[in-house]
From TrEMBL:
Signal peptide: none annotated. Pfam families: 2-Hacid_dh, 2-Hacid_dh_C. Keywords: Oxidoreductase. Its EC number is 1.1.1.79, 1.1.1.81. This is Glyoxylate/hydroxypyruvate reductase B. Belongs to the D-isomer specific 2-hydroxyacid dehydrogenase family. GhrB subfamily. Residues 106-285 form the D-isomer specific 2-hydroxyacid dehydrogenase NAD-binding domain. GO terms for cellular component: cytosol. GO terms for molecular function: glyoxylate reductase (NADPH) activity; hydroxypyruvate reductase [NAD(P)H] activity; NAD binding. It comes from the Bacteria. It comes from Virgibacillus salarius. Residues 4-317 form the D-isomer specific 2-hydroxyacid dehydrogenase catalytic domain.
Length: 322
């Protein structure tokens, strides 16, 4: 089989695939003009990788394609309608990264609340020359109220950490009620507006869909407490980034912790990078050695099952199989 690997497939998995198949790996190429990429795409039976935009234009250039295997939980890079119409399977890698991303979100909560990156830089720059006063104080995390927007697997894991580790009060907003979270963590379901008004930490952890694009903007930031900290571990386009910048400049909220941006890699001139009360990460939610290897392995399992004519374990567009 001819397999096109794109952007991020861990080396042990890539090596295993190459033992039995014709695999070509591409990284940081222009997928509209790179001749080697386009030539191999014309022959490819399967695609495995991260962040490759699969739309009608690309599919027109891939007549043999049978399956696309995303090395991620999110799949907003896939035109599912176009894939399904052409009877091409699409898969993702759910479950594996849940705890890793939840750890990262809590890292953002703690880093932002206690101003860890800012104070780390103070020490390393040699400017810690006297006892610190209230200008450098952070805010407590324990026993505060965390609002979780999106109570899926990752939201559930965040609630678990908040309840058991930090004795936090938990509000959540989701498409459906989550009785297990309510029972195990005393989580309280709230409307989005109620959650924003009452939370000390607002954690956005929804997938990017038509419904969630720009879910949080000026109106929503204005509803938050002036002492609130906003955490985005979802996708950059789930918020109106310029509205977040204005909310921070105007003092409508106290700070933000971000793993995602509207444009990635982020523009070096972005105002968010100049703010001491904003902690910024380069979209590393699932990026640990252990989790990335497991994700690539599951993506390869999905891919090979589809190429063998078997139903992949994590098929997104199930109607193709039916």
């Amino acid at each position: 089989m001819k397999i096109l690997a794109y952007q991020r497939v861990e080396k042990p998995v890539l090596d295993d695939l190459q033992k039995n198949h014709d695999v070509q790996f591409f990284k940081n190429v222009d997928t509209n003009s790179d001749q080697a990429f386009l030539a191999f795409l014309q022959q490819a039976d399967g695609i495995i990788g991260l962040d490759l935009k699969i739309d009608r234009q690309l599919l027109d250039r891939a007549p043999n394609l049978k399956i696309v295997s995303n090395v991620s939980v999110g799949y907003n890079n896939l035109d599912l309608e176009a894939l399904t119409n052409r009877k091409i399977m699409a898969t993702n890698t759910p479950g594996i990264l849940t705890d890793t991303v939840a750890d990262m979100v809590f890292g953002l909560i703690l880093s932002t609340a206690r101003r860890l990156p800012e104070l780390n830089q103070l020490v390393k720059s040699g400017n810690w020359v006297e006892s610190l006063d209230s200008r450098h104080y952070g805010t407590d995390v324990h026993h505060k109220t965390v609002g979780i927007i999106g109570m899926g697997r990752i939201g559930f894991a965040i609630a678990q950490r908040a309840h058991h580790g930090f004795d936090m009060n938990i509000l959540y907003h989701s498409r459906t009620r989550k009785p297990e979270a309510e029972e195990k963590f005393q989580a309280t379901y709230a409307s989005l507006d109620q959650l924003l008004q009452r939370s000390d930490f607002v954690c956005l952890i929804t997938p990017l869909t038509k419904e969630t694009k720009h879910l949080i903007g000026q109106r929503e930031f204005n509803l938050m407490k002036k002492t609130a900290i906003f955490i985005n571990g979802s996708r950059g386009k789930t918020i109106v980034e310029q509205d977040l910048i204005q909310a921070l400049k105007n003092g409508n909220i106290a700070g933000a912790g971000l793993d995602v941006f509207e444009q990635e890699p982020v523009d070096p001139k972005n105002d968010l990078l100049k703010m001491d009360n904003v902690v910024t990460l380069p979209h590393i939610g699932s990026s640990t050695h252990e989790t990335e290897l497991k994700m690539s392995a599951l993506a390869a399992e999905n891919l090979l099952a589809g190429l063998r004519g078997q139903k992949p374990p994590n098929l997104i567009n199930d109607t193709v199989w039916k």
